[in-house]
Amino acid sequence: MKNKLLYMSVFGIGAGTGSFLTWKVTKDYYAHLNEEEIESVKEAFKSQEQQETPITKEETETSQLDASDSLNKEMFKTYSKISQTNYGNFSKEKYNAEEMGDACMNDQKIIRPEEFGEFDDYDTIEFTFYADDNLIDENGDVVMDIENTIGYDALTKFGLYEPDTVYVRNERLQTDYIILLDQRNYADIMGNN
Predict the structure, then answer these.
(1) pLDDT tens per residue across span 61-76
(2) pLDDT at residue 80 greater than cutoff 90
(3) Under 8 Å between Cβ of 152 and 110
(4) Whole-angstrom Cα distance, residue 150 to residue 132?
(5) Are the CB atoms for 154 and 179 separated by under 8 Å?
């Protein structure tokens, strides 16, 4: 009888200790998650407040010039001239208004970061633009049809809202694109693989 009582006591103490430790770890974990979520919401509201004022054409031009301070000035000059650059053996001269039609020339527009992915029926795609003028999709393939997806103008807009990111909406394709700037050469990255 004594042994049975001893075993039950040990089992009860073990179960109580295990329950207490589980409760404590779970409580700490969710408290940490809550703090992170609160901070992210605060940052989102702060960012939204800063961007709620309408941006005039002069402010846009000023913000583009200010972006050159945050980026390497040489890189900014390079990307500002990007519309005249050949993209991985793909030339802008291959397209003209007659071949594409006027409709697809105006399908793309630069959007604010908070507008990205706001339509449930629109796809979202991520591209990376490298220093050697290669635009690469999520699968690591070179994007050959720049004009019909994001438009060449988008590649000159780094720094408009964020220093190394541009957001584009293509109404015709019902797709939002995020283009990330990578100051490395794509050829170097592929050479390392």
Answers:
(1) 555 444 444 444 454 4
(2) no
(3) no
(4) 18
(5) yes
Distance CA 128, CA 75 (A): 15
Strands of the sheet with 165-170, listed across from one edge: 108-110, 165-170, 175-182, 123-130, 135-136
Q: How far apart are alpha carbons 49 and 72 in whole angstroms?
A: 28
* Residues whose CB is less than 8 angstroms from the CB of residue 108 and which lie 6 or more positions away in sequence, other chains included: 149, 150, 151, 153, 154, 168, 169, 170, 171
- Summarised one tens digit per residue, pLDDT across range 124-134 is 999 999 999 99
Ramachandran region, residue 139 (left: φ > 0; alpha: ψ -120 to 50; beta: rest): alpha
Q: How many CB atoms lie within 10 A of CB 27?
A: 10
pTM of the model: 0.47
Quote the CA–CA distance of 178 and 193 in Å, as a whole number: 25
Tokens describing residue 88: 């991985």
Taking a C-beta distance cutoff of 8 angstroms, is the pair 124, 179 a contact? no
Beta bridge pairs of residue 162:
165
Burial zone of 31 (CB within 10 Å; 0-12 exposed, 13-18 middle, 19+ buried): exposed
Distance CA 167, CA 37 (A): 24
